[in-house]
Amino acid sequence: MRGSRRATSLGLSTLVTALCLGAGCATAPRPVASERAPHFFEAPTSDDPWTPQIASWQARERALPDVELLRPAAPVSNPAAAASAAGRADGATKPRGDLRSEYFAFRAERKRDLAREVAAWIQSTSKQHYIPDGPVDHWATLAETLARNGDDCDGLELLTYHTLRDLGFREDEVYRAIVFRPSDRQHHMVTLWFERRDDPWVIDPTGAMTHGMPHLSEVPGWVPLKVFSETEEFTVRGQSLESLIAGRTPR
Predict the structure, then answer these.
(1) What is the helix, strand, coil percentage profile of the chain, to 5?
(2) 0.85 exceeded by the pTM?
(3) What is the distance between the alpha carbons of residues 204 and 216, in angstroms, rounded to a whole number?
(4) Which pairing describes strands 174-181 and 223-228: parallel, antiparallel, or unpaired?
(5) Based on the structure, what is the number of domains in the chain?
(6) What CA–CA distance (Å, rounded) separates 89 from 93?
(7) Is the dihedral of CA 85, 87, 93, 96 positive or negative?
(8) Environment class of residue 32 by beta-carbon count within 10 Å: exposed (0-12), middle (13-18) or buried (19+)?
(9) Which positions of the chain have pLDDT values less than 50?
(10) CB of 98 closer than 8 Å to CB of 105
């Protein structure tokens, strides 16, 4: 009996110790075996039943690569009235709006909000990181600007340009631009966002030309000379622009 009690006591002691240890700090979970983890990018088999449908969609989507071609020719002035005329969805309690117009309006406003946020950030940040070039004008790369912890307008502008591009703005709507002020013959670098091809938004990294994000037509006294990216270069031409640059009053 005595030996049995001692064995029982030892057994209970071991069990209590194990329970106490188990109730302490949580142990790290065992890693999932690699063979159980999903492999996302394996080539499909030749008889994959989904492949034909996926390939069909891919071909049709690539046939219209620019989503801007889907933009409505004119906005729907009264989506509710238009939906009423077209009829109601089965079981719907209110008229359907025009999905195309609603989609592009929502997307445009979100892009404007994002661009304004970028403009506010760079114009605030550049106050602590503006470094003039000195007698020799050097156009820095983005890597050089970050390594130097700042630059002048042409280096700081790259932060805006690359941010918008990295956030999804298309290659054909965001450009770097050289602008010119005829009154004192000063040149400056800004980012132009061509939401409209005839009157882009201006994001000035240092605020020397403008603050906020106005349209170019709202910034008097400055004229664009060049518009360019890593792969394209354009010269801005027009009778009124050439007259301003030459110091003449346009007719």
Answers:
(1) 45, 10, 45
(2) no
(3) 11
(4) antiparallel
(5) 1
(6) 8
(7) negative
(8) exposed
(9) 2, 4-10, 12-28, 76-89, 248-251
(10) no
In-domain check, residue 230: yes
Residue 92 lies in a domain: no
Angle at the Cα of 97 from the Cα atoms of 92 and 101, rounded to 5 degrees? 155
Q: Please choose, from the candidates 120, 181, 190, 197, the residue with its C-alpha nearest in 3D space to the C-alpha of residue 155.
A: 190
- Residues with Cβ within 8 Å of 94's Cβ and at least 6 positions away in sequence, in order, are 80, 88
Domain assignment of residue 101, yes or no = no
Note the pLDDT of residue 30: 57
One-letter identity of residue 203: I
One-letter amino acid at 184 equals D
Please state, as a whole number, how many other Cβ atoms lie within 10 Å of the Cβ of residue 18. 10
The structure tokens 């201006």 sit at 202
Q: How far apart are CA 207 and CA 46, in angstroms?
A: 58
**Sign, Cα dihedral of 239, 240, 246, 248:** positive
- Kindly state whether residue 194 falls inside one of the protein's structural domains: yes
> CB neighbours of 59 closer than 8 A, spacing ≥ 6?
none
Facing residues of 106 across strands? none
C-alpha dihedral, 228 to 229 to 232 to 237, nearest 10°: -10
The three-class DSSP label of residue 207 is coil
